[in-house]
Every structure is written in structure tokens, then in C-alpha cells.
Design a protein that fits this description.
62 residues, mainly alpha, 90% helix, elongated, membrane, transmembrane helix
Length: 62
């Protein structure tokens, strides 16, 4: 159940970040490539975080 709570919290964080990125892109359209590159990095870091905790927490328990 803890894994699902992490996924839900991460999805909430991504939703909030997407709203902030949308607002930023409306005010500064010339920064759009930088904004979407930072969004991609945020997504990759979140996936790595979930993968790390899923793999290493499972190994420590067994």
C-alpha cells in the first residue's frame, strides 16, 4: 500500500508542476524549450525515485 501512496503523491506533484509549467509558458513563451526540458527531468527523476524505492525496499525485506 505504501507504494501506491507514493505513486499518488508523485502524480499530485506532477499535476501541480504541470499547472505551474503551463502558467510559466503563457507568460514567457520564448522559454518554452527550457520549461519542457525541466518537466522531462522532473518526470525522469520521479520515475527513478519510485524505481529505487520499489527495488531496494523489496530487497531489504527479503
Amino acid at each position: 500500500m505504501d507504494f501506491f501512496k507514493r505513486i499518488v503523491l508523485l502524480m499530485l506533484m506532477y499535476t501541480f508542476s504541470a499547472v505551474l509549467l503551463y502558467v510559466a509558458s503563457e507568460h514567457a513563451p520564448y522559454l518554452l524549450p527550457v520549461i519542457w526540458f525541466s518537466a522531462l527531468l522532473l518526470l525522469l527523476c520521479g520515475i527513478a525515485y519510485l524505481g529505487y524505492h520499489y527495488l531496494y525496499k523489496g530487497r531489504r525485506r527479503s
